[in-house]
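DM between two lab members

TW: hey, do you still have the Response regulator transcription factor entry open?
JB: yeah, one sec
JB: this one, 220 aa:
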Amino acid sequence: MPVTVLLVDDEPLVRAGLRAVLEAQPDIEVAGEAADGAAVIPLVRRLRPDVVAMDVRMPLMDGIEATRALLRTVAEPPKILVVTTFENDEYVYEALRAGADGFLLKRARPAEIVHAVRLIAEGESLLFPASVRQLAAEYGEGGGNRAARAALERARLTGREGEVLRLMARGLSNAEIAARLVVGTETVKSHVSAVLAKLGARDRTQAVITAYESGYVAPG
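TW: and the structure you got?
JB:
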């Protein structure tokens, strides 16, 4: 089955460019388009896309609020890929904090766009980990986020789970973590699932942001 994508951007040329890049791939299908975040929820309910590729800045409802609304109201929400003009943007970090799974620059090359959509859909790696670290270093409160620290304390991660979280924060995939720890991939998947459940995180991105904001992992 192809990965289905909903494109949300107020610029028709951006949507057209993304559509052209994605639909050139045999395993990706553009399910629909919208010009504002306010249209996301009804379209998601009707089209059931695997991924929403959404501009972070839009006139009526921006990508941050649309992400919050989508995760709050849709029982099984799709993956959310924020599309942005600027990499080092507080809006991007707020979207990630709100629950977006990753971000993509509008100037990205076609191969990077396709890779981002596939990686977000699979959910087994952190998209652009160095950029997420940079955003966390600038906007993540230097490990002093009380809510994140409380979440880590409640989680009571085991030593091995802590190792897995640190390797996730470095952007390693499940297979790479398995090789590093000399264990099976299924064992790593179990540890990752346990980390997400204990932290109450939707995905790897949210778990890593909690790790950075609590000071459990240094973003530098």
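TW: got it. The CA atoms of residues 19 and 30 lie 6 Å apart. The first strand starts at residue 3 and ends at 8.
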